[in-house]
Amino acid sequence: RRRYKLLKRIFDLFFVLCLTPIALPLILLGVLLTIFTSKGGAFFHQVRVGREGKLFKIYKIRTMVINEGGFTVANDTRITPIGKILRFTKIDELPQLCNILVGDMSIVGPRPVVVSERDVIEAREKYGANDVLPGLTGWAQINGRDNLSTDMKAELDGYYVTHKSLIMDIRCIVRTIPYVLKRKGIV
Asked: What does the pLDDT look like over 90-117, one tens digit per residue?
């Protein structure tokens, strides 16, 4: 266990360092487009639940008009035109590499949950999915994502926890790429 944690942390840091030359220009482009096309700051942060219930701030590029909260819905009018592109390409998620760098997240793990999603947190607890760092991508993300019930997502996240390994992480990353490009499982 201890060896795996160390290897996973090294893997996460290596992955972030490899992605940085690609991600940094995309983040800068997203920030500039956001600033010049809508009022407000470029970044959005939100408190999420991490490993063992620890709260942390997740960072994204802002994709919605300012002072609007709540969960997004299909064809949400609060999403800015640039925000739609940033969400479609997942560029808005790239600042989470900083969350990985500081150790709040990992590349692979259950997606971090919003504090108000008590049902998801409780369902994950049943499967042990709250015992690991949340991830940029995860097993539930590539096995149905938005098309899954809360319990099924929690079960898949639990499957990841019981089968976690660097090989499993690599499988998740490799399967994430076509999943994102094809926009599978996004409602």
From this structure: 899 999 999 999 999 999 999 999 999 9
| Cα–Cα nearest to 136, from 165, 102, 109 | 109
How many helices and strands (H and E) does the chain possess? 6, 5
Q: Could you tell me which residues are beta bridge partners of residue 108? A: 137
For CA atoms 166, 168, 174, 180, give the dihedral sign.
negative
Single pTM value for the model: 0.87
- Find out whether 110 and 132 touch, Cβ atoms under 8 Å: yes
The predicted-structure confidence for 139-183, as pLDDT tens digits, reads as follows 998 888 778 889 999 999 999 999 999 999 999 999 988 877 776
> What angle in degrees, to the nearest 10, is found between the helix axes of 166-181 and 150-163?
140
- At position 59, the amino acid (one-letter code) is Y
Element (H, E) at 87: helix 81-89
Tell me the C-alpha distance between 49 and 40, whole Å: 26
Quick one: how far is CA 42 from the chain centroid? 18
Contacts of 79 (CB under 8 A, 6+ apart): 63, 64, 72, 87
